[in-house]
Amino acid sequence: MYKFLLAFFLMTITTEVHSNTTSINAHEFQFKSIDGEELKLSKYTNKVLLVVNTASRCGFTPQYTALQNLWDQYKNKGLVVIGVPSGDFGNQELGSDKKIKNFCEVNFNINFPMTTRSHVKGPKAHPFYKWANKQVGFTGTPRWNFHKFLIGPKGQIIDWFASTTKPGSLKIKSKIEKQLSLIKQK
What we know:
The protein has helices at residues 2-12, 63-74, 97-108, 127-136, 170-184; strands at residues 30-32, 38-40, 48-54, 79-85, 148-151, 157-161. It is an alpha+beta fold. Helix 2 (63-74) links the parallel strand 3 and strand 4 (79-85).
């Protein structure tokens, strides 16, 4: 019982990341967009990123609504929400990028940037996730769909949020607003 409680606790806590262990930052990575185009994170320098591994058939899939709301609320202030579809957890993502895009548009009116279906854990993980997972350590790595990484304007990981943390929560919004205020100070 204690092992279960400890595992659950580790899955639901967040730990603020105070420093990077390398000079590499998120802006050095790129994805392929869900439309097949290059999606360089360097184009988001001086923006705040919320990178979320998503899945279409998950109990957390309704978080798409809150992610879209965050995007709508803060995109003109410098926030970029990026959805990274993945089937790594329970194979709960649709099989093709076309089906994923259609599902997101039809069911949630998603218009924030989405990538192609990607791995977020293990040896086949996308390079961004290999880097991010190394930065946050074992407790901060994705354990399920809708894990969130908050990236600051200079490309550093600011924090991570477990799947159970809702995108519209005060915890996430206050961290986003703090990072957006740093953009305004420049």
